[in-house]
Design brief:
Elements lengths: L5 E9 L5 H9 L17 E7 L2 E7 L9 H16 L2 E7 L13 H13 L3 E6 L6 H14 L4 E4 L8 H10 L18 H16 L4 H4 L1 E11 L22 E10 L2 H8 L4 H18 L2 E10 L7 H6 L7
Helix pairs in contact: 6-9
Bound molecules: guanosine-5'-triphosphate and magnesium ion.
Length: 326
């Protein structure tokens, strides 16, 4: 390994819905984190490793930082701030949305609070202005100026995580801020998330996409059974193994049994839908994305269950696989 090799952790930090998970997936080139148009989609810390000849960056996607009410949301915000504390470099994401010339450009209250937290850490922090595909160009510079006045950013990078604009440049720039060190992970490793965890998340993603109001925030998915006895060869989430481009057709069969938990009977009725129509749609969409992930045919059995107030207690969080001890 050459002397100039760099490596370290970079935490993706920001308000809900600014595109942190979309950026993680774009950087790594795999769907490691679920994405939805609704805020508070990500609930855990998600590792995505990018390895290049000149260095390795371990990115950490985190839940959006917001004024948290209730144990689940408090846990999410804690996870995000902890990831920032543990990182070598912080990527602070904002969204540059705006189509009106006369729009007021300012740092909102929520973002100001996040910056107050980041200031305590004294880490090299990069301002990543996302969604530039969706902004009037004249609004961009004033927006960057407003943020620069609030915080001594090491760098400012406008990107479109959705379209990929400037994402490579962002990687190069973040790598330059990393310490000189050897790689922390094997070069083929993309994530430490188990397949089962990704599968549960892909199912939750479809629940988020198909439901409205409070249902997304009350939904959790638990895998009861993951039967690989008829699977050809397990494919761990590794470079070149899971991308659609390098994969042929589906082989073998994986049988998955999962429960979607909600907090009330009324929510259960919504997720099931008329004559089971909603659950069927959720299942079909989830199965397609799980098949792409596993490279295998998938038989997916889904049930909807009520766990009253699970998001309100440490025991409830633990039951859904959200560790509440940190
Ligand atoms: N137009 C546009 N939309 C984007 C871009 N990046 C993300 N989005 C959209 O913004 C929404 C939120 O994206 P996510 O990646 O889930 O956002 P997040 O910051 O991870 O959200 P939380 O997990 O809730 O904190 C989705 O509808 C994305 O498709 C972008 O560069 N341009
Ligand atoms: Mg997210």
């Amino acid at each position: 390994m050459s002397l100039s090799y760099r490596s370290g952790f970079a935490a993706l930090i920001g308000r809900p819905n600014v595109g942190k998970s979309t950026l993680l997936n774009r950087l790594v080139g795999e769907k490691l984190a679920i994405v939805s148009p609704k805020p508070q989609t990500t609930r855990s810390k998600i590792l995505g490793v990018v390895t290049r000849p000149e260095g390795q960056i371990a990115f950490l996607d985190t839940p959006g930082i917001h004024a948290a009410k209730g144990p689940l949301n408090k846990l999410m915000v804690e996870l995000a701030l902890q990831a920032a504390k543990d990182a070598d470099v912080v990527l602070f994401l904002i969204e540059a949305a705006g189509k009106r010339e006369d729009q007021v450009v300012e740092v909102g209250e929520g973002n100001r609070l996040v910056l107050t937290e980041l200031a305590k850490l004294r880490k090299p922090t990069v301002l990543v202005v996302n969604k530039i595909d969706n902004v009037l160009k004249p609004l961009l510079l004033p927006l960057i100026d407003a943020y620069r006045k609030e915080f001594p950013f090491a760098e400012v990078v406008p990107v479109s995580a959705l379209e990929g604009d400037n994402v490579e440049a962002l990687f190069d720039l973040v790598l330059k801020l990393m310490p000189q060190a050897e790689a922390m992970y094997p070069p083929e490793m993309l994530t430490d998330q188990a397949e089962k965890v990704l599968v549960a998340e892909y199912i939750r993603e479809q629940v988020l996409r198909h439901t409205r109001q409070e249902v997304p925030y009350s939904a959790a998915v638990v895998i009861n059974d993951f039967d690989e006895s008829e699977r050809d060869t397990p494919r761990p989430v590794k470079k070149g193994k899971t991308s659609q481009a390098t994969r042929g057709g589906l082989t073998g069969l994986v049988r998955i049994d999962a429960s979607i938990f909600v907090e009330r009977d009324s929510q259960k009725a919504i997720v099931i839908g008329k004559g089971g129509s909603m659950l069927k749609e959720i299942g079909t969409e989830a199965r397609k994305s799980i098949e792409r992930l596993l490279g295998s045919h998938v038989f997916l059995a889904l049930q909807v269950k009520v766990a009253e107030g699970w998001s309100e207690s440490p025991a409830g969080l633990a039951k859904m696989g959200y560790p509440s001890d940190r």
